[in-house]
Amino acid sequence: MTYLAAIREALQEEMRRDPNVLILGEDVGGTFGGAFKVTQGFAEEFGDRRVMNMPLAELAFVSAATGMALMGLRPVVEIQFADFITTAFDSIVQFAATNYYRWQAPVPWVIRAPADGGIRSGPFHSQNPEAWFVHTPGLKVVAPGTPADAKGLLIAAIRDNNPVIYLESKTLYRSLKGPVPAGEYVVPIGQARLAREGEHLSIITYGTQLRESLAAAERLAQEGIEAEVLDLRTLKPLDREAILQTVRKTGKILIVHSANRLAGVGAELAAQIAEDAFEWLDAPIRRLGGADTPIPFSPPLEDAYRPDAEKIYRLARELAAY
Amino acid sequence: MSESSLTREQKIELYYWMCLTRIFDDMMVAYWKQGKGLGGTFSQRGHEAISVGSAYALEPDDVVAPMHRDLGCYLLRGITPRRIFANLLGKATGVSRGRDANLHGMGDLNHNIIGYISHLPQSLPVTVGVAMSFRYRNEPRVAMTYVGDGSSSAGLFHESLNLASVHKAPVVVIVENNQYAYSTPLHQQMNIQDIAIRAAGYGIPGVVVDGNDVEAVYAATKEAVDRARRGEGPTLIECKTMRMLGHAIHDGAEYVPRELLAEWEAKNPVLRFEQRLLAEGLVDQAEIDEIRQRCQVEVADAIEFAEQSPYPDPETLEEGVYAP
């Protein structure tokens, strides 16, 4: 099943199970089914009442989702491209995120945001906004890297009583296939997964870069370097134990993500590892992320901006030899 | 529109809530001026008719998202003076358990109140969402919120009213046009006389009301609430009033012409209603005095309760960031 089909399946199953689950977003309803066709056919099954087209006003409809969530509904909001989430930033970080702490009313919504580039979409359609939200208390942030996790994490996010930012990789939508458990399949928020075992170094990653990291690990294995690949799956809250475990095991850490490297999630990971597991480290922690530039359009520029299997392979080999 | 179908008991009840609001406000301001307050605080002097008159038009099942000049709404909906004053002092017994300041964050879904957010008019789309959920579930409930004249300049004001109208959300939006957004006068905020005319741009009714006349506010709100409950969608009500003190306690509002304040002091909503009740023979001075006395005792009790309440335990700092 493709990554995109797994997202569809999670949405469909949850909507069938729970009448409180509804979908809001631009172009999601009617016969169109969203810019990436994730909700195609949904309006036919669930009606425009539950698959609501929204006016071009992210701030208003994300806030409206907060109002619905306060009343016990479980809205799943589609942001057409993750980049556009900035328009609704205010209501996410100021209201939804702080609400439970301020006055103890849960806000159980999910925002699905198609993130990441690599498909030549230019600066406004390729961004990875996770660090903004990881920095915000009260939110949960997930970023699946496999079809199974795309389904399992979305179901968990819908059932969670907190606002969850669900960053899906539009790079993987149709290009990644994998087994997806049929029926109810929940991947608990906050648990990383060891995607590959190894002893020489650890690659810690998530989202689109999981595939790239696994490809790099395969190549390294041909040279006798066994790289462990830890898929974080949830970026907030982080699975501290799983991170420390892989550090203790290999002592060499490479952190990879598509988002800008500077002050990205990798920076926090590196800091936590340095603080909590310094004595297990056998080499400096290395990070691979996007350059400190907007995400360029032209292929050679975008490729230079982004991490990929080749860059991961090269840096991992260096690290293994340290 | 000062006609209303209120009974004598209802009018006296309205007077009680306005009186409680004013006395709470007065005693709060005095408390702060004595240097005993914590952080900043907002007076709602002059806004009593709006917050009380509009909230009185709601049913208990309806949901309201008040702002920082709607003390009367919080009180009328059942949040006790004790919990409010404790909130002002950052005490564990306050509505937000010390998590949020002054009238911010005073939400309690047991009273169907949405906690306020300082980023006005953020409460507007949230309330529209609340109303959309009523429609989604076919519940005969209404949602109401309040914003100021300044808020109506934000893009979100437009986005929200448009969304509400498209989805026929059962929502009532009260604009408290109190002439000043912090220090910025109305003419620097907008180029129109009546904010209510903006409603036409969304295909919904826009109503202008004397915001210092509690019965007029009640009547207009009741009509809008009934309309929303009948499934006819949102209404925008502009209540004209005047902010009688500064934006917050630290602001002496020297930028406001004194004549303007004098003009509005003559329309003091509490005194005005009191005089009307006396003139109509619905109450006598003794009853008025009794109500005032009762309110004073309540507020004094609230202050004492708040002072004696403990601060939250610092050990609980990280508790309650996430809902279970």
From TrEMBL, chain B:
It comes from the Bacteria. It catalyses: N(6)-[(R)-lipoyl]-L-lysyl-[protein] + 3-methyl-2-oxobutanoate + H(+) = N(6)-[(R)-S(8)-2-methylpropanoyldihydrolipoyl]-L-lysyl-[protein] + CO2. Keywords: Oxidoreductase, Thiamine pyrophosphate. The keyword Oxidoreductase applies. GO terms for biological process: branched-chain amino acid catabolic process. Signal peptide: none annotated. Its EC number is 1.2.4.4. Coiled coil: none annotated. Pfam families: E1_dh. SUPFAM superfamilies: Thiamin diphosphate-binding fold (THDP-binding). The keyword rRNA processing does not apply. Its cofactor is thiamine diphosphate. GO terms for molecular function: branched-chain 2-oxo acid dehydrogenase activity. Residues 18-315 form the Dehydrogenase E1 component domain. The branched-chain alpha-keto dehydrogenase complex catalyzes the overall conversion of alpha-keto acids to acyl-CoA and CO(2). It contains multiple copies of three enzymatic components: branched-chain alpha-keto acid decarboxylase (E1), lipoamide acyltransferase (E2) and lipoamide dehydrogenase (E3). Belongs to the BCKDHA family. This is 2-oxoisovalerate dehydrogenase subunit alpha. It comes from Litorilinea aerophila. The lineage of its organism: Bacteria, Bacillati, Chloroflexota, Caldilineae, Caldilineales.
